[in-house]
Amino acid sequence: MTRGATRTFWLFVGPFAAGLLLFTYLPIGWSAYLSLFDARNTVTPTDFTGFDNYRDILTDRAFLDSIGTFTLFAVFIIPTTVVLALVLALLVNQIRFARAFFQSVFFLPFACSYVVASLVWKMSLFSGVDSGVVNTVLGWFGGSPRAWIGTVDPPLYWVVLVTARLWLQLGFYMILLIAALRRIPRYHYEAAAIDGATPWQSFRHVTLPGLRGALIAVLTLNLINAYQAFDEFYNILGDSRGYPPFARPPLVYLYYTSLGSGGQDLGRGSAGAVILALVIALATLLSGRVFRRAR
Amino acid sequence: MDRRSFLVVAGLLGVAACGSNTGRGEGGGALKHWYHAYGEDGVQDAVRRYAAAYPGAKVEVQWNPGDYDSKIVTALQNSAVPDVFEAQVKADWVRQKQVVPLDDLLGDTRDDFVRALLDSQTVDGKLYGIPQAIDTQVLYYRPSLLAKAGVAPPRTVDELVDAAKRLTTGSLHGLFAGNDGGVGVFTGPLLWSAGLDFLTKDGKAPGFDDPRAATVFGKLRDLNQGLLLGAPTDWSDPGAFVDGRVAMQWTGLWNLPKITAAHGTDVGVLPFPRLDDSGAESVPVGAYSAMVNARSTNIDAAKAYLKWLWVEKTDYQTEFATAFGAHLPARQSLAARAQSLHSGPGKDAVGFVTGGGRIASPARWPARANTALSDAVSRVARQGADPVGELRSAVDIARTEIARLDR
């Protein structure tokens, strides 16, 4: 490389590399360091405790519950999202009339902030008073108003959380799948039609294999997204007094542990973050392995 | 835009962001004073006016909406800003040497401050915060609605449970105590109603290692039958009561002006009732107190300013406590000046504080113990978990966390 080219290289790459180092790798390393200390209310701890934080948080029922809850959440939300996004993509891709309009309509929610959507879901749509949108609609059919977010038994709050998430992210996955659908060559379908394939057979043997790459991407993104759940949970279920012990995602629990008011336990919080990172990495690797085998 | 020009633009933006202001203002020697965002109109103007009137130094007031308590904890870890702030003293801050003792500021006014309040801001015999005003919470009720339903104002926990159920008819609910089913605001009062507390008298152990705690948390499960949930505003706002959604609401005494404006004389107040004869009626007492950041570059000036504002300027202190919302002055001599507390519900509330005021957030009560306890109460009251088992695990965590303070 000439000197000029080297300089250009660093001019372009430098800021990003520095940013990555400073704002991503350094915090990760620091977090791992903090996890080995009793680091309450400090980021420069002196009290080395070895793996005590790990032992502590791995026997902490609240943390384990949060991981358990969110594995269940992932098991539910991932297939639901993928199936619904696929159905939407197939439907929107089929229509001949105003296709761009429908694509935009379904994609637009993705541009909405999670926080804004959470507040709309909490204060307007699923407000517990009789003037809430959902309760008003229920009222037309003679139903009595429900406290959607406050009802724990049965856990109606899941309806609020799941619908908010589906509304926000379905459009994005739909667009990914539509893009993939368009890349499947027409002649595959024509060949299938000539061979007398039924619509289901051509879906099963042409469309699905053609979408495999995109579906794996959608599944993996979904999996990571499910474990990263924070915004809508924090904004819908949290209040000034804290967060209830149910539907508490790992990130919300770690947020309150390490950054909550009163006692910022950065050591335990970091240990939890390291464990969570390992769980996500493992789950992603496993899902990749499973899909590769299915290929 | 092609990829190369995008990268150039993004790169420049990145550089620009790195070079921007670090947040350290050009204020020079000005003292930075932080408050949380009070909900009552006029408080912000008042505290800015007080700061401007201080002759000893330039004081900049910062108003902090949002999660103020977390913001303070973060600032105290490694920032010299703010110099002066309001908060409730935590033993951890003293252990980390993040705040400075203020005993020398009180002088002969020490006896004038409400004793329990000073005690709540004291760790290991030293005072770290000067109480600004007393906040308390009471049970507001509409006498007309209770009379119509044939319900007497509740004086025991069972009567409260019963009243909340019987007052719930149609769209009217019996009681509103927050959208979390009362877990946040009632945990302390429930303990006190059974003669228990967060901590033992000496502050060295959890004060609720007792089967009666399980009993009284079970009552919150029953109470949830008559609670309003899912209101647009939370317990700290009088909205649900003012709008007539509920016959009773647990909220701050500070909302008294708004509530009497809405319901006139059809308002009564009660303390949280007792469980039985061995418990007592109570109201939680909390106080933001003024503190000095140990990393401040000008601790002496900060202390002098605090002494001027929260010890010497009694007219400001009275106005701060009583002119905007109903708080009680932190000093006995000032309570006599507060007209709004001389009759009606205001007077009743003063009596509750005197007779049954309990510290809502003791300095030695750790955040993690609090999370464990409110998780347990929430599981019992809202999910129907076994009170004895839940209490057991909360006691264990609290015991470890409290012991850690003396390590």
Can you lay out the helices and strands and say which pair or pack?
The complex is a heterodimer of chains A (295) and B (407).
Chain A: H1 3-34, H2 52-58, H3 61-94, H4 99-107, H5 114-125, H6 133-140, H7 157-182, H8 186-194, H9 199-210, H10 212-227, H11 231-237, H12 250-259, H13 266-294
Chain B: H1 3-18, E1 31-36, H2 43-53, E2 59-64, H3 68-78, E3 84-87, H4 91-95, H5 103-106, H6 115-120, E4 122-123, E5 126-127, E6 130-131, E7 133-141, H7 143-148, H8 157-166, E8 173-176, H9 183-193, H10 211-223, H11 239-242, E9 246-252, H12 256-263, E10 268-270, E11 283-286, E12 289-292, H13 299-312, H14 314-322, E13 328-329, H15 332-335, H16 344-356, E14 357-359, H17 367-383, H18 387-404
Parallel strand pairs in B: 1-2, 1-3, 8-9, 11-14
Antiparallel strand pairs in B: 3-12, 4-5, 6-12, 7-9, 7-10, 7-11, 7-13
How would you describe what is shown here?
The complex is a heterodimer of chains A (295) and B (407). Chain A has one domain (52-294): MetI-like (MetI-like fold, Orthogonal Bundle). Chain A contains 13 helices and no strands. Chain A has helices spanning 3-34, 52-58, 61-94, 99-107, 114-125, 133-140, 157-182, 186-194, 199-210, 212-227, 231-237, 250-259, 266-294. In chain A, helix 1 (3-34) crosses helix 13, helix 7 (157-182) packs antiparallel against helix 11 (231-237) and helix 12 packs antiparallel against helix 13. Chain B has 407 residues and is of the alpha/beta class. Chain B folds into 2 domains: 31-132 and 287-312, 3-Layer(aba) Sandwich (D-Maltodextrin-Binding Protein, domain 2); 136-285 and 362-404, D-Maltodextrin-Binding Protein, domain 2 (3-Layer(aba) Sandwich), CATH 3.40.190. In chain B, strands 7, 8, 9, 10, 11, 13 and 14 form a 7-stranded mixed β-sheet that branches. A 5-stranded mixed β-sheet of chain B has the order 2-1-3-12-6, sandwiched between helices. In chain B, strand 4 and strand 5 (126-127) form a beta hairpin. Chains A and B meet through helix 1 and helix 12 of A and helix 1, helix 3, helix 9 and helix 17 of B.
